[in-house]
Amino acid sequence: MLVSDSHRFLFVHVQKTGGVSVEHLLRPLIPDVRGLEGLTRHARLRQVLKAEPALASYWTVGFVRNPWARLLSWYGMVQRFRELAEKGSPKAQRFLGGGGFMAGVARDYPDFEQFVLRGPDDWPRLRTPQVAYLRAPGREADFVGRTESFEADVRRVMLHLGLPTPDSVPRDNAAPPRDYRTEYTPAMRDRVAEVFAPDLEAFGYSF
Q1: Could you tell me if residue 85 is inside a domain?
Q2: Whole-prediction pTM value?
Q3: Predicted confidence (pLDDT) at residue 66 exceeds the cutoff of 90
Q4: What is the DSSP annotation of 79-146?
């Protein structure tokens, strides 16, 4: 979540949708960009507006992603941290050695199937539709970009803010592309459709 008072801009960071790349692009270009005390990077719009109601008038942006691809990306991130921890990375070892989400996923789900079938019951973040991050009572994001059209949508944001657009938009924290459809059994596919039905309706995603 980022706020710029000079640009009257609010960015809501939905997990695993390219938000780290958006932050890395905007921070050097907007000197007054800030977070909100007491709120996490992935605070929902309703939490942001409760903490600072005046932000309701700011141009509000977020990104979303196909839910099936998003869950595969999430699990892949944990697997990458597991590999780095085994190679001695202090950062990865710190993440996987605590009692948080990363450690829990690495410990409790031996494969992607268990992550999809059981994870939403165990972790609220894995059962929260993306649309819940981008809507608040009487307010919703003004522009919702998509990971599937990331470069074009990031350029739209930067043009709206009057910022220079890069020749190419870097993707930070991204894994090599995979065809998510090959990773799902029918039961896994149906589980995601059930959990993220609001996203399928709001953004028109399908398997």
Answers
A1: no
A2: 0.91
A3: yes
A4: HHHHHHHHTT-HHHHHHHHSSSHHHHHHHH-SSHHHHHHHHHHH-GGGTS-GGGGSEETTEE-SEEEE
